[in-house]
Prior knowledge:
Radius of gyration: 76 Å
Strand content: under 5%
Distance between the termini: 160 Å
Order of helices and strands: HHHHHHHHHH
Shape: rod-shaped
Amino acid sequence: MAGSLQSEDISLQIKANLEVFSKIDEQFDKLKAKTREVSELTGNMFSSSKFSGMSRSLNTINNRFDSSTNNVKQLRGELTSLQSAFDRNKSQLEGLSNAQKEYANSSRTATRAVQANQSAVQRFSRTRTDDVTRSYTKTTSASQKMGNASQRLSETGSKFIRTGQSMAVTSTVIGAAMLKGANDAVKLQNQYRVITNLATYGGEKQAEAQRNVNKMQAQGTNYSVKYGVAQTKLSAGYEELIRRGYSTNQALSTQKTFLQGALASGDDYTDVVHNATAALEGFGLKSNNTTVMARNTKTAVNQMAYAADLTATNFQGMGDALRYVAATGRSANQSLSMTTSAIGILSNNGLWKLASQSEMAA
């Protein structure tokens, strides 16, 4: 671009010089023409020797003008040749400038292509790197998830195994409990069927006996929860009462007393029923009247429990001693409370086994 501008400046200068020389040439031509006119006029006017020197001078001047004119023409010709050579050089320079421009354009195109290729390579590299990184990350994450899933599956399997083992143990326990419950239920039903038969054989009507036995079942269920005694024990207690002569109504009215006596003394319910009913028989406190029987049972249980609590004995020991001394104490007009107190004192002294009939009589 700079070379092209410089060549144009030189061309303009040469053209300006040619125009100046053309103007000078024109002025010389005009001056030459005027000089010739003057020479012709003076030649005609002053043909004498007096003006011959002036005429020669003018001719000399004309010759000089001719010489100067030739020099100017020669110089103009040289400038014209120079202009032609410059024009040729200018064309070559313009061709070179165009070639440089094409080269510059090609270079810029090649540069842009290289840059585009580099950008494409960089994008491809980044894309592939990112893809590889994401693939590796996904693969790693999937591996970790698979590991975690495998661990959770293993833990779940272990839990299932433990649960199965626990369920097996629990099932065994539950099965045993259900079996025991089923056996107890069968046994309970058999006991209440026996109680019904005993009451019927004892003289009660079938309908009354069945009605009271049904009440015993409901009462047994309630008392079992309230006092913490098994229903099978309660049904066995009802059976013993019926066997000892209690009616079904009397058994219903006195059951609570036996349970309260066992709770107060801390003795077993079966021991309380067995020994208290034996004491009632030994001291003649049985009655066919339900109200009287309930009162006498309460008195006997309370007296025996009081004596057992204040001395070193219990219902079972008290019952064993009363087997020997109940009849003797009754014949000696001793009450149940006096007899149980004496047994308690002997027990405190370690002599309750000596409480025989002869010793009580003495």
